[in-house]
Every structure is written in structure tokens, then in C-alpha cells.
């Protein structure tokens, strides 16, 4: 069971992308930001941190008022560090502008279905994350791109984006909806056989003729771009499988978080994605490990009458020992299930991290010897 060498990972010029994934509330965004700060300041790498999580914790911790779809320099960092937050509609708009003419782009932007899909459609965020990551990598401007993904299992949804897009583009119903745009605007239902007429009427009744018209217009306007969407998504998927990419699963030493970490590790193995290690945040330490919990409680009872302060301290120690035992047990289960996955640990901090100095401390903790959980 090896330990994760974070500095070797960040300092390796062959590693160009680090993807942090994990469940919510485990310090994943803080970990991504701390890795970015350390990569830029300690290893001298030109680094950009891309967050897909719409929460604004990354901007706050980096001392920025806000983040948007364009990389912003972090002025408080000593090295070349930039940060950005995915704006899925802006990214979709940029893709349209880059791959069609101005007149066609105007038609697409005005289409109600496009307006809904680019803002709220399920899966659009993950697919646009693939587009943005692919765009950043293609620019070859950064030594290292660190991706902070959304919380929970949706963090790996972007791995499914190419397959979902292919199913969407190749679906029979979508082909029917494309047909009127290719046939001079005739109704979609005039292009199918009479045996389909009953289903057609049902579709109009359920979805509404205007929605079908909007969808047909949207598909027709984007038809010449679909192949490019799919090709770029699949190219980014291949990049995520390449040796230049490293996935870090972030967890807390708690049953639910470690179960999610186990899921992530298994899914990455199935997809042949390079898992570099597990980061366990908020690990507690015992500073008097030679005093078991039972002895501490017995001693507390013995001195309660004469020294209640000492008794209270002994009971706190006993609770901490019990907590550490639980953390060791739950984290050891991951270790046993994935013995080849290196692990780095970060001790629980006395306060939330909210500035560059705090991120530097986390980066130092990540690079130090791991807390002994075993």
C-alpha cells in the first residue's frame, strides 16, 4: 500500500491535466485550489484551475471577487496561476460562433429550444465541460490544467458525454425531426408513413406543435455542426485516458464519502482512466496515542472529584481516540479494496480555508508525510 507523492505528480512535466472528483462536502474544491497554488508557486508551472462546480468557493479562496468563463490571473499567487468557472451557456455560444457563420449563429441563438438546452438541459453542463477542457488543452498555453468537478456521482457524468451525444444524434426520433429542415420546412409528420400518423398526432398533443417546430429548427440549424461536437468530445475523452492525465479522488474519512470514493475508483478503472491516488481530507490525529480510550475514561472517573478540568480533558481524548479508530477503519476498507491506489492525507484544520495562505498550508500538508491511519 503506497503513499501518494503529490509533489512528484505536480512537478511531472508529462502530467498536463489533473481531475479532482469526489462527493460533496469533502474539501474537493479546496484541494483543487491548493494543488493549483502549489503547482504554480513551488513547481513553477503555468497553471489554470477550472471549476465546474457553480458554487463560488474557489473564487473566494483565491482572493478573487468572481470567476467566469475566461481564465483570470490570481494576483496573490507567487507563480503563474489562473482560475475560471465554467459558464455552460457561454461555452455553448462560443462553440456555435466558432463553427458556423454569423447568420446561422443568430438563428440558433434565437431558437427557444437552444435557449433552454444551453442553460438548463440535463447533461449540457457535463458536455460543455468536455468542450472547455478540450479547448484549454488544445491551446497548449498551460503547463497544467486542474479540473474541480461537481459534487457527488455527477462528477463523472462528463465521461458519458460522448456516448450520450452519439445516442442523441443517432436517435430515430431526432432523425425524423431533422427531416423537415432538410425537406424545405415541410411538417415532420408529412414525411413519415401513414401508419405513423396516429403516433404523430399523439406527439403533437403531448409535446405541442410549437415545441416540435422549435426542436426541428434547432436540429436543422445545428445539423452541420453535430459531427464536430461528437468528434471533439471523443477526442477529449481520449485525452482523459492518456498518460498526461491524472485523476485524484477526494474523500473525507466517513462511510458515505469513502463509499463514493470506491465508486469513483471502480468507474475510472472501467473507463481505463488513470487514477493517480486518493486524497483523504479532515483526518484527525491523537497526540497521546499510548493512552487508550478505556484507560482515559477510567482515569477521568478517578480524578473527577479532585480535578474536573483534567477529567474533562481525558474524556475529550477518549472521544478523539474513538473517532480516529472509526476513521482508520473506514479508510482501511478503501485501501484493502484498492491496494494499488496511493493515498495522501490532510489533517483536519482548525478553521475553514478561505485565502491563499490557507491553501498554501493545505498544499504543504498534501506534500508532507501522510497522517498515520494504519
UniProtKB/TrEMBL annotation:
<dbReference type="InterPro" id="IPR027417">
    <property type="entry name" value="P-loop_NTPase"/>
</dbReference>
<dbReference type="InterPro" id="IPR025723">
    <property type="entry name" value="ArsA/GET3_ATPase-like"/>
</dbReference>
<dbReference type="InterPro" id="IPR016300">
    <property type="entry name" value="ATPase_ArsA/GET3"/>
</dbReference>
<feature type="domain" description="ArsA/GET3 Anion-transporting ATPase-like">
    <location>
        <begin position="16"/>
        <end position="283"/>
    </location>
</feature>
<dbReference type="Pfam" id="PF02374">
    <property type="entry name" value="ArsA_ATPase"/>
</dbReference>
<protein>
    <submittedName>
        <fullName>ArsA family ATPase</fullName>
    </submittedName>
</protein>
